[in-house]
Amino acid sequence: MENEKKYSIKAVSRISGLTEFVIRAWEKRYNAVTPSRTDSNRRVYSQTDIEKLKLLHQATAKGHSIGNIANLNIETLKELNDTPEADEIALKRNISNNFDPSNQVDICFEAIQKLDAEKLETELLKASISLSQPDLIEKLLIPLLEKTGQNWEAGKIRVINEHLASTVIGPFLFNLIDSYKIPNTAPKILFTTPMGQQHEFGALLASAVAAYSGWKAIYLGCNLPVVDFINAAEKMKPKAVAISIIYPPDDLQLKNDLLKLKMLNKEIAIFAGGRAASTYLDVLDQINAYYIKDLNEFKTKLMSLSN
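Below the sequence we write its predicted structure tokens.
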């Protein structure tokens, strides 16, 4: 019906109780709804789309997996939400105080250990419904990735476990960053990991923090030659750049690469963080870079710089 009222994703989020990120994720991953597009390519949703999203929200809150119910029609979803079994599941969830991020970290890590990608993705999406986006990053994703990294370094999980985590969490973070509609007039910040740094989660998490802090966060990938990073900065003219250093500590070649960042425009702020960043403090001092101990400190620095 051409005259049917259409709603923006912001309005749908307010009405359905779902975050914009979850709505987009359910669209892309599960085809839960298929919004139409305006002439300017913006998503717009029908009243039917909103009703279905509200029912899906209720059903997932009662313990159903979105992967199993996303393609059910509205009548079936209403029946599903009305079953006594669903109410019993919901009651048990409410008794446990609705949602415990620390418990969710353990559940997600167990999925990584068992190489259960579908379970990991389902639990991440469940968390994204129950937590605000800052809490999703700070109370779930950061502890989960720290736990995964520590267990990998200790030899308690194998490379295949870390690869599975990357396969699921990487796209999840990209979608999270994409869900922030930051205007092009916002200050830009570029993210990467230098040559030899294959672990990208730190850079992706920092990108998400920058995005929800109002910055135009642009992730350029991992294992990037410093010269290419400098060239990108010359073309894109960011207000800041950030690098993540996870492993190895105190590497001579990496020190030489970092020194090349002196070639950057002096007005561009340089941030460096990650588990191994503290072993390069002498070099970071030479290039006038901010050493970031954690993402909360990074968020504070960004706010100060943008002001």
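The chain has a mean pLDDT of 87.
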